[in-house]
Amino acid sequence: MSNNNAHSNLIIAQRTVKQLRVEANVRRIKVSQACADLKNFCLQNASRDPLLMGVPSSDNPFRPPKSCSLF
Fold first, then answer.
1. pTM for the full predicted model
2. What is the CA radius of gyration of the chain?
3. So where are the chain's domains?
4. Contact (CB, 8 A) for 11 and 3
5. Mean predicted confidence (pLDDT) in 26-48
6. Minimal CA–CA distance to 24: which of 16, 12, 36?
7. Hey, what's the torsion of the CAs at 36, 39, 44, 49, to 10 degrees?
8. What sections of the sequence does the record tag as coiled-coil (predicted)?
9. Rounded to an integer, what distance in angstroms lies between the CA atom of residue 47 and that of residue 66?
10. 58 Rama class: left (phi>0) / alpha (psi -120 to 50) / beta
11. Arithmetic mean of pLDDT, 47-55
């Protein structure tokens, strides 16, 4: 039983080391650079953002239904 437990612990340790190696190789940038990039992206795409510009009523699937009246 303890041999099986030791084998399981070894597999877990190997997976952990593998994951840590992957994470160590991730390209990182400074937070200030990431913020500047995000700000530039938002400013460049603001004109296409429906939360800022609104959705045309013809394209809005959630618009209130129009009332019908029969004459």
1. 0.48
2. 27
3. 2-43
4. no
5. 95
6. 16
7. 160
8. none
9. 29
10. alpha
11. 85
Structure-token match 């399981």, residue found: 8
What's the pLDDT score for residue 71? Answer: 62
Q: Report the pLDDT value the prediction gives residue 65, as an integer from 0 to 100.
A: 76
Give the C-alpha separation, 20 to 60, whole Å. 46
Torsion of CA 24, 28, 32, 34, to 10 degrees: -130
* pLDDT top residue among 70 and 44: 44
Q: Which residue has the tokens 């009246």?
A: 69
Is the sign of the CA dihedral 11, 12, 17, 21 positive or negative? positive
Is residue 1 scored above 60 in pLDDT?
no
Tokens 């618009």 label which residue?
63
Q: Evaluate whether 18 touches 24 at the Cβ level (below 8 Å).
A: no
Q: Residue 25: in which H helix or E strand, if any?
A: none
